[in-house]
From TrEMBL:
It comes from marine metagenome. Pfam families: DXP_synthase_N. GO terms for molecular function: 1-deoxy-D-xylulose-5-phosphate synthase activity; metal ion binding. Coiled coil: none annotated. PROSITE patterns: TRANSKETOLASE_1. This is Uncharacterized protein. Its cofactor is thiamine diphosphate; Mg(2+).
Length: 237
């Protein structure tokens, strides 16, 4: 077998990612990005959403215990890196082809796809449903919804957040505010996020998060620290 990548060749499932050092994850991210571009150049598909979440995808699978912990991707287009890292690397060039991989997350395709995402703004409500089931069954697994700044402006996302807040259900929502969507984000939410990222609140957020983390269990703190270390290395080199 011809070796193509330094680290991606060794990664078939998220458990393999956990064997890598933080410094090696940055190289893995470059390799995942290259593999994704190579695949989409053959099959066609949506590049932007997936390219924008490569580091985030690696960080989530590195920190959380998937598939026991559930990651719900809003809009299936951003799940290409997720597919590469969850046992479907060898089939990635069959994306959107007959009898090939779906262009979206698909429950029948992998145990790492707990929800069949297609169009936007459904991830928070889906995550809330799974988290509510965990609560009823007294399970401690984490449930994470990943949603973008464009998708979060839709009504279904607001309804889900309203319901989650009132029910006090344990779940995590990650807002991927990268100022990218099919069309330019508009409206009050987009304006608010832009102001938030340019204001003092954003720059003091890290210290606030440290205080919050210190109040939680050591297991949660260790996971948060791992994610912070990786994201810092991705940004600063």
């Amino acid at each position: 077998v011809i070796k193509k990548y330094q680290y991606l060749d060794k990664v078939n499932f998220p458990s393999d990612i956990k064997n890598l050092k933080i410094s090696e994850l940055k190289i893995l991210a470059r390799e995942v990005r290259k593999e994704m571009i190579d695949a989409v150049s053959v099959t066609g598909g949506h590049l932007g959403a997936g390219l924008g979440v490569v580091e985030l995808t690696i960080a989530l699978h590195y920190v959380f215990d998937t598939p026991n912990d559930k990651i719900i991707w809003d809009v299936g287009h951003q799940a290409y890196p997720h597919k590469i890292l969850t046992g479907r690397k060898d089939k990635i060039k069959t994306l959107r082809q007959g009898n090939g991989l779906s262009g979206f997350t698909k429950r029948s395709e992998s145990e790492y796809d707990p929800f069949g995402a297609a169009h936007s703004s459904t991830s928070i409500s889906a995550a809330l449903g799974i988290a509510t089931a965990n609560k009823l069954e007294k399970k401690s697994n984490q449930v994470v919804a990943v949603i973008g700044d464009g998708a979060i402006s839709a009504g279904m996302a607001y309804e889900a957040m309203n319901n989650a807040g009132s029910s006090k259900t344990k779940m995590i929502v990650i807002l991927n505010d990268n100022d990218m969507s099919i069309a330019k984000p508009v409206g009050a939410m987009s304006t608010y996020l832009a102001k938030l990222l340019s204001g003092k609140i954003y720059f003091s957020l890290r210290e606030t998060i440290k205080l919050i983390i210190s109040a939680f269990s050591k297991r949660f703190s260790d996971k948060a620290r791992k994610a912070e270390d990786f994201l810092r290395s991705a940004v600063t080199g």
